[in-house]
């Protein structure tokens, strides 16, 4: 069997080899839109990370959020955003993605949130934060410590496997803002 991470560019080639030689290919991630083997046989590629864009959609619908703000940090986050857009049905959908921003660090996220505060201080803001655990923690803590940002008008949805990591219970900032 083959085991390892591959770039999206080389995934199709390794996926084809895997199916042709009936050799399992285990990878931490691969694109959701994977073509089924043309031979009609089994697909030998296995992803260890679940796709969770549908969980994001279901959570947003469950809470009844009408508009979301999507902050992401990587190509994977952009792909998830694309999957969310592809899953939405025009004219029928209960929510829309209002704003999107790619962030490199927590300070970029906070700067973007400041610009939102300038536009509409008292409106509710539902932020999907699609980034690594450490960056998500830093965004939340920095937001809570920033006296110019509202606390009650924000609700964060942390996407991915962020909550699998240990969040320090002694950091009181995590209890000062809505986090799902």
TrEMBL record:
Gene3D superfamilies: 3.40.50.2300. GO terms for cellular component: membrane. Its main location: membrane. InterPro entries: ANF_lig-bd_rcpt (IPR001828), Peripla_BP_I (IPR028082). It is found in: Membrane. The keyword Iron does not apply. Residues 2-165 form the Receptor ligand binding region domain. Keywords: Membrane, Transmembrane, Transmembrane helix. Transmembrane segments: none annotated. It holds the Pfam family ANF_receptor. This is Receptor ligand binding region domain-containing protein. The lineage of its organism: Eukaryota, Metazoa, Ecdysozoa, Arthropoda, Hexapoda.
């Amino acid at each position: 069997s083959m085991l390892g991470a591959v770039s999206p560019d080389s995934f199709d080639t390794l996926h084809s080899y895997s199916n042709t030689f009936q050799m399992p290919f285990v990878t931490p991630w691969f694109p959701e839109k994977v073509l089924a083997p043309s031979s009609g046989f089994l697909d030998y590629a296995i992803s260890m990370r679940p796709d969770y864009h549908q969980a994001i959609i279901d959570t947003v619908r469950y809470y009844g959020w009408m508009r979301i703000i999507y902050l992401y940090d990587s190509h994977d986050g952009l792909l998830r955003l694309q999957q969310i857009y592809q899953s939405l049905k025009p004219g029928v959908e209960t929510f829309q993605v209002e704003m999107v921003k790619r962030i490199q660090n927590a300070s970029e996220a906070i700067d973007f949130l400041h610009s939102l505060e300038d536009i509409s201080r008292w409106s509710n803001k539902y932020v999907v934060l699609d980034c690594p655990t450490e960056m998500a923690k830093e965004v939340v803590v920095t937001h809570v410590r920033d006296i110019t940002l509202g606390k009650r008008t924000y609700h964060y949805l942390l996407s991915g496997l962020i909550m699998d990591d240990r969040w320090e219970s002694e950091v009181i900032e995590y209890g000062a803002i809505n986090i799902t």
